[in-house]
């Protein structure tokens, strides 16, 4: 099971606040973190301390992820570290809650918070629905909280069923500590108390939230993080003394007391967090959702996912014991689609590591990449969800493709670019997808022609390859370009444009013949025979050009920098699986980047990669060139790509082993799949915390990883790589043609 992180995430996260007793008399004990200065006093009116401590990131490795099927509920929830974390509204690229958790106190001797004073356990409640439960048990043994999460299928509401238990038989008090971060930032929200114990918040962007509960909260307050928030109040004397209104924009944190004691008859509550363009609308949404029994809302939520799984392919025999991973992967892909911009699937529902600190106002992983969307679409095709794959292509044409045929590096759902660069494989992949979907009519041809013309005019060199931090001649990018041009030629002929078809094929043929000369070195240190490099700056792989490896990597001879991405030459039909340079490159990559774990074999994405946690296991953040402070670990999706290569090469048993590797690398409780898993470079910390082959603190779930798992399983069931464009394979090695 994936280990939990103890890394501090906010400026103020004190652990359990305790007052010790001595000979029956209460005395104040030293606090782990000192309480706010001054004695606690009852206070009301405007909250002091605006704007509060600046809002920071929420970890991107999620313990749960869900949304209702259908477009009636434009809200998505995630779980992290035992609490509700990023909640997305009104689009899946727009987080509007930072976190929401509970605080427990006996009112006299201790005050606990879930994220620091409890042991957590995650449960996927059904193998056929994205319904998760969190069980938090106090480290002290005093209390337990059991929380079940769904979203209202008819409304933009997150519903949370709460069971609160005192494990000592003594009455306790329960408080909700709620941190809005409306419209992707937590620094300009205002908040107040509403009718019947509601907590209301809004910002200046027509996004508002309302929190209500049954039974209703009996005392509420809105303050600013680190100065007048409810935790500052409760930790000082174990009582809620403040009932503030936060009427100045800032980092709002809201607090409400639930009338539960943890004893019989006072254990259960339902919390509804509703959203809308105004606080009035949000409150109406939340109250309406709360008016329906949680069990009924959950039943509708579960039924929606069950219907979806019935509408697609059942888990094939090839998945073996990983049927749950198949179902969860299919649901994760489906849940990653936006409900306003249909066909827009984000890469992951989170901002991992320090990305969200340095780029708080940008969608980082919760953005759309053309490449990731192609990978997701092929995963959807693997499970038989062709309508969703077609929506993905429609999205690419309508919202991302530029007038010149290119695509942004990534974008918000409305097409607004996030990062400013360009990657040529992202221009080519939509063409391949169009061909795979049989989208060859005149309307699609206009889009295909625009992108194919761009590839001819600007390729094969790319400003960025698929790992997004190197420029030049990349074998993986060139493979996508060649495949895109051959597919475009086929579509051109179907539309009577023989001249364009001839241009595309001639260009593709030239590049297919030259890709080895551009990207495979004959003088590199790892083999006396040619092997593919990650990228060459000048298209001269024997030149020994110095390459600055990003993310703290060294300045080094590019002949020492390899990665497994060249396998796209085989997957896309450009080269044979038994091509000598491909075979030798596989051996080089195995030696340089592969490692074995109890879960199976994984590969680092590139030599000297620093895109991962620091050496001590703490969160990644940008580092100086050559610092070597951060380490990229293994990517499970690379095990899937290697499995596809093994299948094409006729080694089915090896491919099946790699599918099992991907299945075992999923989180044991949530069944979510991560971007990276730990390797054998252990950070300082316990062996249980950093287990090789288990998820790191990287993005989880990563849609690409889930798509790759589905694709490999489907390929194994079919007995061949079904997403290899046959028109490409037949052109470059006729024995690959199928009837």
Account of the 3D structure:
β12 (143-151) and β13 (157-166) form a beta hairpin. α5 packs across α17 (703-718) and α10 packs antiparallel against α11 (475-494). The chain is built from 18 helices and 27 strands. The chain is α+β, with helices and mostly antiparallel strands and 739 residues long. The strands form 6 sheets. The chain has a 10-stranded mixed β-sheet with strand order 4-19-15-16-17-21-13-12-11-10. Strands 1, 5, 6, 7, 8, 9, 14, 18 and 20 form a 9-stranded antiparallel β-sheet that branches. It folds into 2 domains: 17-53 and 70-305, Distorted Sandwich (Beta-galactosidase, Chain A, domain 5); 325-541 and 564-588 and 636-670 and 707-736, Alpha/alpha barrel (Glycosyltransferase). The chain is elongated, with a radius of gyration of 27 Å. The longest helix has 22 residues, at 498-519.
Secondary-structure topology with pairs:
Blueprint: E1 17-18, E2 21-22, E3 25-26, E4 43-46, E5 64-66, E6 76-80, E7 83-88, E8 95-105, E9 110-113, H1 114-117, E10 118-124, E11 132-138, E12 143-151, E13 157-166, E14 173-180, E15 189-193, E16 199-202, E17 208-214, E18 219-224, H2 230-237, E19 242-250, E20 252-258, E21 268-276, H3 279-290, H4 294-311, H5 323-335, H6 355-358, H7 370-382, H8 386-400, H9 424-436, H10 442-458, H11 475-494, H12 498-519, E22 520-521, E23 531-532, E24 546-548, E25 555-557, H13 568-571, H14 580-593, E26 594-597, E27 600-603, H15 636-648, H16 652-665, H17 703-718, H18 726-732
Parallel strand pairs: 4-19
Antiparallel strand pairs: 1-9, 2-3, 5-6, 6-7, 7-8, 8-9, 8-14, 10-11, 11-12, 12-13, 13-21, 14-20, 15-16, 15-19, 16-17, 17-21, 18-20, 22-23, 24-25, 26-27
């Amino acid at each position: 099971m994936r280990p939990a992180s103890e890394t501090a995430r906010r400026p103020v996260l004190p652990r359990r606040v305790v007052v010790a007793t001595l000979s029956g008399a209460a005395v104040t004990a030293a606090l782990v973190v000192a309480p706010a200065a001054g004695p606690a006093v009852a206070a009301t009116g405007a909250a002091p301390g605006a704007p509060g401590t600046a809002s920071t990131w929420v970890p991107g490795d999620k313990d749960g992820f869900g949304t209702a099927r259908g477009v009636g509920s434009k809200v998505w929830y995630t779980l992290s570290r035992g609490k509700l974390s990023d909640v997305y509204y009104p689009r899946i690229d727009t987080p509007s809650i930072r976190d929401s958790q509970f605080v427990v106190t006996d009112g006299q001797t201790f005050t606990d918070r879930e994220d620091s004073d409890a042991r957590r356990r995650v449960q996927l409640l059904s193998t056929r629905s994205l319904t998760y439960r969190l069980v938090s048990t106090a480290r002290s043994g005093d209390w337990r909280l059991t929380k079940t999460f769904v979203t209202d299928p008819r409304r933009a509401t997150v519903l949370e069923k709460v069971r609160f238990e005192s494990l000592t038989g003594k009455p306790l008090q329960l408080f909700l500590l709620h941190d809005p971060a409306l419209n992707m930032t937590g620094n300009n929200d205002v908040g107040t108390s509403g009718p019947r114990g509601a907590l209301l918040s809004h910002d200046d962007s027509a996004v508002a939230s309302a929190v209500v509960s049954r039974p209703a909260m009996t005392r509420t307050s809105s303050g600013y993080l680190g100065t007048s928030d409810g935790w500052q109040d409760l930790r000082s004397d174990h009582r809620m003394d403040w009932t503030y209104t936060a009427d100045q924009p800032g980092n709002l944190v809201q607090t409400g007391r639930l009338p539960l004691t943890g004893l019989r008859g006072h254990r259960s509550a339902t919390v509804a967090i509703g959203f809308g363009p105004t606080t009035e609308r949000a409150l109406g949404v939340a109250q309406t959702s709360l008016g329906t029994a949680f069990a009924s809302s959950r039943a509708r939520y579960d039924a929606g996912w069950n219907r979806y799984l019935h509408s697609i392919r059942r888990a094939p025999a090839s998945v073996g014991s990983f049927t749950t991973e198949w179902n969860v992967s299919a649901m994760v892909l489906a849940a990653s689609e936006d409900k306003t911009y249909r066909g827009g699937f984000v890469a992951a529902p989170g901002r991992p590591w320090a990305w969200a600190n340095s780029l708080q106002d940008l969608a980082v992983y919760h953005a759309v990449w053309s490449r990731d969307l192609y990978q997701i679409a092929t995963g959807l095709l693997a499970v038989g969800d062709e309508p969703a794959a077609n929506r993905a292509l429609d999205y690419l044409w309508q919202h991302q493709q530029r007038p010149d045929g290119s695509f942004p590096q990534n974008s918000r759902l409305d097409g607004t670019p996030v990062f400013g660069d360009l990657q040529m494989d992202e221009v080519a992949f939509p063409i391949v997808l169009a061909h795979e979907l049989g989208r060859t009519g005149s309307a699609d041809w206009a889009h295909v022609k625009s992108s194919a013309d761009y590839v001819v005019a600007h390729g094969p060199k790319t400003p960025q390859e698929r790992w997004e931090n190197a420029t030049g001649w990349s074998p993986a990018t060139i493979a996508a370009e060649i495949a895109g041009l051959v597919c475009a030629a086929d579509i051109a002929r179907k539309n009577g444009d023989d001249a364009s078809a001839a241009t595309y094929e001639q260009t593709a043929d030239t590049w297919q013949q030259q890709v080895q000369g551009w990207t495979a070195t004959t003088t590199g240190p790892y083999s006396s025979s040619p092997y593919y490099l990650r990228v060459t700056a000048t298209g001269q792989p024997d030149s020994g050009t110095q390459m600055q490896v990003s993310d703290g990597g060294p300045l080094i001879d590019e002949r020492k920098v390899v990665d497994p991405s060249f396998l796209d030459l085989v997957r896309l039909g450009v080269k044979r699986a038994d091509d000598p340079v491909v075979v030798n490159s596989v051996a080089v990559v195995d030696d340089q980047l592969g490692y074995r774990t109890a879960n199976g074999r994984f590969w680092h994405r590139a030599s000297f990669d620093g895109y991962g946690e620091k050496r001590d296991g703490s969160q990644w953040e940008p580092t100086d060139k050559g610092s070597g402070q951060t380490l990229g670990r293994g990517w499970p999706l690379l095990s899937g790509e290697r499995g596809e290569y093994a299948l094409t090469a006729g080694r089915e048993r090896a491919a099946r082993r790699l599918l099992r590797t991907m299945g075992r690398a999923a989180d044991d409780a949530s069944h979510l799949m991560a971007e990276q898993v730990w390797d054998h470079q252990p950070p300082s910390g316990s062996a249980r915390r950093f287990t090789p082959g288990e998820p790191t603190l990287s993005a989880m779930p990563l849609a690409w990883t889930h798509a790759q798992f589905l694709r490999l399983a489907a390929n194994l069931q079919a007995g061949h790589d079904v997403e290899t464009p046959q028109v490409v394979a037949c052109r470059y090695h006729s024995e690959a043609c199928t009837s």
